[in-house]
Design brief:
about 15% strand, globular, about 375 residues, two-stranded antiparallel ribbon
Length: about 375
């Protein structure tokens, strides 16, 4: 078996490293010192650089001006983005664009995807429902009219980048129990956005839909579309958690190698080395479960459990692993870790956001338990 990445995937990683090399984790005010959002907008100059490097069109078909790569390549880029806390809607835009490409109407794909690749269009997804605990499609109802338009009513909370997205992918349930996915313009009549602030200090939005109408080509009725998009968003979040955790462990290694106590670097103390080693093991487990989920997303390969099982395992490790990694880093840094002039506290805030985003470990453990009950392993 060959576990190496392809030349194209490796090239995407190198391009991402080059683009993110100039991004500074402390480029915006500290979330610990800012009562509201840390910024009114995402990092537009960085977004332009991603477009120039063809990283926004990475997953798009050549027909839409893209490179035709897979979710593994996206996860490699997201991993690099999290190391510098890149403030861009890369995951949401890429994931929704790929869902449109796979399941959307030709008219919708031709309208949106070339502009996404050029960085002209921002997409996001409402994935947390009305409370953050219940399935997102249950928070919105979709009614079909005689002219094939859909009418949506409901509320979605904690939608990232919604104030700046050109379209919001909103899952909704129909009277027949099906799930549809509507690509709604932010300024569509009946859409109301209310500002919210994330743990990391980023601007989110509560999206309220009051008899919002969508044209037939704007609504994806394929039942698998939302499940697949949700799996990609969750797997991408795992990739971000891995990249962030790797950077934080590196910061801990650098600090403990320089900090001396009793005339020796504290990194040479057994208690310090053991804690760092435990976090390294966490990161390797996060990595292997991430690539298993990303591989199944990319290839459609089967397994003992449905794809949701591998995604749940990856998110369990990502949520628990990134939390333990930043907690250990804070402990090993001592009081220096809480210094707002040092970036570790920003990574801690981002880690908490990633841990809970799209469900904490406990929620995915429940999902995994249900899947194991429904699919006994022989």
């Amino acid at each position: 078996m060959d576990f190496t990445f392809t030349e194209e995937q490796q090239a995407a990683t190198e391009a991402a490293k080059a683009v993110f090399a100039g991004a500074a984790p402390d480029a915006v005010p500290s979330p610990a010192l800012t009562p509201g959002a840390v910024a009114d907008d995402f990092d537009r100059p960085l977004w332009a650089k991603l477009a120039d490097a063809d990283l926004l069109s990475l997953l798009l078909d050549p027909a839409h001006g893209g490179a035709g790569l897979d979710p593994i390549a996206l996860c490699l880029v997201l991993r690099e983005s999290a190391k510098v806390l890149a403030r861009v809607p890369l995951l949401e835009t890429s994931a929704v664009a790929l869902a449109v490409q796979r399941y959307g109407a030709k008219e919708l794909a031709e309208d949106l995807l070339p502009r996404v690749g050029r960085g002209e269009l921002v997409l996001t997804a409402a994935a947390h429902g009305s409370t953050g605990h219940d399935p997102a499609p249950l928070a919105v109802t979709a009614r079909r009219r005689d002219n094939d338009e859909w009418v949506l009513d409901g509320v979605q909370t904690a939608v990232p980048w919604a104030q700046h997205a050109d379209r919001i992918a909103v899952p909704a349930h129909t009277g027949e129990g099906r799930t549809v996915l509507a690509l709604i313009p932010r300024d569509r009549t009946g859409v109301t956005l209310t500002d919210q602030v994330s743990t990391s200090g980023e601007l989110l939005a509560e999206v309220r839909l009051d008899s919002v109408r969508t044209a037939p080509h704007e609504t994806i009725t394929e039942g698998a579309a939302w499940e697949w998009l949700h799996a990609l968003l969750t797997t991408g979040t795992c990739a971000q958690a891995l990249g962030l955790g790797e950077r934080v462990l590196t910061m801990s290694a650098e600090y403990t190698s320089q900090r001396e106590q009793f005339g020796f670097p504290v990194a040479t103390f057994q208690a310090v080395a053991v804690q760092a080693a435990d976090r390294y093991i966490d990161l390797r487990a996060m990595e292997v479960t991430l690539w298993q989920a990303a591989w199944r997303l990319s290839t459609g390969a089967g397994g003992a459990l449905p794809l949701a099982g591998d995604v749940a395992v990856a998110k369990i490790w990502a949520s628990d692993g990134v939390r333990r990694t930043v907690q250990t880093a804070q402990h090993l840094h001592g009081g220096f870790g809480a210094d707002t002039d040092y970036p570790l506290h920003r990574y801690h805030a981002w880690a908490k956001q990633l841990e809970l985003s799209l469900g904490p470990a406990a929620a995915h453990e429940e999902t995994l338990g249900d899947l194991l009950a429904a699919h006994p392993l022989g």
